[in-house]
Amino acid sequence: MSINILIVDDSSTVRAIIEKTLRISGIEIGNILHAGNGNEALEVLRKNWVDLVITDINMPVMNGVELINKMSQDELLKTIPIAIVSTEGSQTRVEELKSKGVKAYLRKPFTPESLKKLVIDLLGVSEDESNR
Description:
Elements: E1 3-8, H1 12-23, E2 29-35, H2 38-47, E3 52-55, H3 64-72, E4 82-86, H4 91-99, E5 104-107, H5 112-123, H6 127-130
Parallel strand pairs: 1-2, 1-3, 3-4, 4-5
Helix pairs in contact: 2-3
């Protein structure tokens, strides 16, 4: 089963690093879609099937928290797991986001192994499937 992932970050470099890390992880990846802010992410989500959203918090136009709030108000989008990858990582912020439905939080800089584990844990991909 290949998975489709949306990466939301205002830095195209960070999006490229996350994509490359996912592509070499051994996890069966389908499409990796990109958005530069929450507003662009909502447009992508309305046009594409996405299994996981990986988003930053601090972005222009619409930040990650606003994106999470909008997704939680939409019957279809609220079922998509959301993971945060951000430099911001205070315990208060992490707890606030988890209370809004965020399933995982990964602090930048991250290791390829930690990103792989996040995807495996969230989507239930087994280790065997991810090592094909």
